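Hi team,

Below is the intake form for MFS transporter from Agromyces bauzanensis. Please confirm the fields before the structure is written into the shared record.

FORM ID: S-0412
PROTEIN: MFS transporter
ORGANISM: Agromyces bauzanensis
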Amino acid sequence: MSAVQGSYASILRQPKAVWAVAFSCVIAFMGIGLVDPILPAIAQSLEATPTQAELLFTSYLLVTGLAMLGSSWVSSRIGARRTLIIGLGIIVVFAAAAGLSQNVESVIGFRAGWGLGNALFVSTALATIVGAASGGSGSAIILYEAALGLGIAVGPLLGGLLGHLSWRGPFFGTAVLMAIGLVAIVVFLQDDREAAGKARPQPTRLSAPLRALRQPALAVLAAAAFFYNIGFFVLLAYSPFPLGFDAIGLGLTFFGWGLALAITSVLVAPLLTARMPRTRVLWIVLPLLAIDLAVAGLVIHEAAALVACIVVGGLVLGVLNTVLTECVMEATDLQRSVASSAYSSVRFLGGAIAPPAAAELARLISPSAPYFAAAGSVLVALVVVLAGHRALRRVDDGPETALVEAEAVGIGDAS
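The structure came back. Fields below:
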């Protein structure tokens, strides 16, 4: 990220529009881990099974993945500002509705609506920050990455603190903060039609992301991400149940997880890919994640050891998220927004399946079974990458620009 390093001095001199979008990014990325600390409380308060509680992740990720297929089509036609406003408005409405729900089925449904808003917002935020920045994009990219890292780390902590008062607290808190972000964008972000000198992107075809999956390299990466994301969401979404902590304890645990993920995605992944081919990083780090998950299954009855596995998992996940998405950016000649939409839609399907499947494995076999299954799934991802190495030769062709790295961090961590 050498292109970014010289812009730290000007990072605080950005227009209000950049700060408005960055603030909204913090809140949007907080949504990744916000509900984690309250899953047991929701199950208890609404008399739901662990499998039903896990469907809060499934509905969110499934709709996010499907909506990603059309997000570039939408933003290329109505503009980034309107896309951001619509996305934030949807999140505000559905987060508040989830907090008012009286049964778990309603919460699951409203989380699905939240996923639609999140897909529209996240897919547009980075381009908007860079487009609104003054004096070059370098400092705006740093600000975006800082907002992303802060949101991922603070989300579980805030969820734990508010969830300690009531399981409804994190939902209402998100609605209020997103409403503030929405007002800030309406007030400070210039309308696309008034942005002098800023050319509107070419409209993309609605079918473009699905057609992109015909590319062998993109198909290999999407398949690997599908199986890898199963491991990701078993660690994130299933772990609150065997830990047995209260909301604050879970919030602190996953604050450590989010902080670890943010540090390695923003700082460590670029250092590794600058020193070795991206595919080699995947060959090394995927087995490390599988080992971490298997160890979690072995120490599941020791809370301190399981917490350590969760935090170590965050370190590994941060690298994998960013490197896999960098590979997607370089794998084809396709427009990056189209390639990332296609990849993300498949990846989120793996994430959608994992939480309820983990709860059912725990019920039918043993509490350790989800971790062992997740480790196996990550090893399948490794086999896919190894088997498709010829299709991935292009992804090892040199370092990324700062902008592509930031896109990889943002898209990679949007799950």
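SUMMARY LINE: The mean pLDDT is 83.

Thanks, M.
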